[in-house]
Specification:
With 556 residues, the protein is an alpha/beta fold. The chain has 2 domains: 149 residues, Chitobiase, domain 2; 376 residues, Glycosidases (TIM Barrel), CATH 3.20.20.80. Helices cover 35% and strands 18% of the residues. The chain has 20 helices and 23 strands. The chain has an 8-stranded parallel barrel, surrounded by 6 helices. Helix 1 packs parallel to helix 3, helix 11 packs across helix 12 and helix 16 runs parallel beside helix 19. The chain is elongated and about 85 Å long. The two termini are 22 Å apart. The chain binds acetamide and zinc ion. The site of zinc ion has 8 residues, from helix 11.
Amino acid sequence: MKPILYALAAALTIAACTPASVVCGDWEVLPKPKEVREAPQDAPFALHKSTRILYEGDSLETAAILLAAQLSGRTGIHCQVQPGPVPDEKPSILLRIDPSVGTHLSAARQTAAYQIEVNGHQVLLRGSTIEGVLSGSRTLLKALPSTEELNEAGRRAVAAWSAATVHDWPYFGYRGFMLDVSRHFFDAATVKEVIDILAFHNLNVFHWHLTDDQGWRIPIDAFPELTRKGAWRAGSPLPETPEDGEHHDGVPVSGCYTKEEIREVVQYAADRGITVIPEIDLPGHMMAALAAYPELGCTGGPYEVATRYGVLDDVLCAGKESTMGFIKTVLTEVMDLFPSEYIHLGGDECPKVRWEQCPDCQAKIRQLGLKDADGKTKENRLQSWLMDEAGKFLAAHGRKMIAWNDVLCDWGDKVCGTPDPTGTIIAGWMRPSSTRIAAQEGYKAIFCPCGYLYFSAKEFNALPVQEALERVYDMPSLFEGLTEAEADRILGMQACIWAERVADKADLEWRLLPRLAALSELAWCGPFGRDKAGFLNRLNRLETTYNARGWTWRQD
Ligand code: ACM
Ligand code: ZN
């Protein structure tokens, strides 16, 4: 969309003979705001060196500083930031928390609700919470003309917002992205850059998949070998060779975060309105931990950090008392690092072959009185017991467990598990129906079907970009066959990147962008009344920022 050129505003203070153009952006931003009422009869608000960003209340200082940095990056204008309002008449951008914003909405939606009022003299941004102010800040940023548009208008062009009132809020309260740092280790600086990308797309959850067979990345003081040994593997599978762990490239992969780095990432994300949810994947996908502490496995090992991918038979021994002690100690340190209400405990792809042969696991099954019944084996029930115990431990500390939909059933659509619906949130990855079934069974659930939202999936990355984008934007109805109460249990949507084949940061960004924009618009605007032409137009404008920020994105 072409920016609007205004004639020289008398208010411009530049004492030069060539008049400056005031270039307005527009409100065609992504994700699309709910309501925009433009006031073309009113003057736009032009951004000048003298414009100040005022914030009401200390809690908004960081948001104001961030906005100033972003405006500077986009326009080259450095606004002063100061507490406000101040009793003078200078044009300003005022940030305010106003709990009356979005009171007609559910709590999940209200959190990120905001209103913007722009006139020639003031930009007033009111958010119901800090998250609302941050969401509104991003709309403000995107509603300015891009650097290219400004350059086109001449050397002294001035960026401006056109006069308007904007009311906006998200459809889903949970708008997430998961990154696997086990198969490929991404350092803390890269993780922060990913968080910038998420924030730019109004996502508010970063799900950090920190442990898996191929590497344990989070330090646990009580079990130092987890990162000393478990964060290192001898190589990664060679393509087109048997998946046996022998055919690897011999290139060691290692890396783990310090606790300090993790705290920094959590704070960095919080400053941008993003909650970090850690995942400790258990009781399967535990080879890295078993390599460090072989006594946690059924056979006692020896084990090696996996040099192959896929699903491995060796898992935590559910029968030994020490296993639950290990889980609780690890979770205690995890909760200390991550203040999130939700902690992800995985629960996916846990073969039962070792448990079937293990005297400790079989003794536990007898002790608990577990039986094969209703299409579910006693070993499946042992996993339900273990997940429940871990979930109860989280609950006793005021947290809730997220688990992959495997905890309801192994590789089937039929629900046959028994985790406590009040304490467990299901991440439905196998099929779109996995999330819906969980919601029908009374669970809160997150929609992340691999056929649509696994941005690492080879078959979708092989598609031309337009089709890959449509695969996300045009995904089938999320709520098919659900009652209103069941639909209400779907907290939101999440994309995932499993990093087996991700080469580096640029490759990661290439998988993310621009598909994350499709997720952003679906999760923010909701899945109803999709407007693909409008979405593609808004995306076009977003891509100028991808370029300006140096983010790699797929173009063909
Ligand atoms: C998963 O993809 N195993 C959750
Ligand atoms: Zn065992």
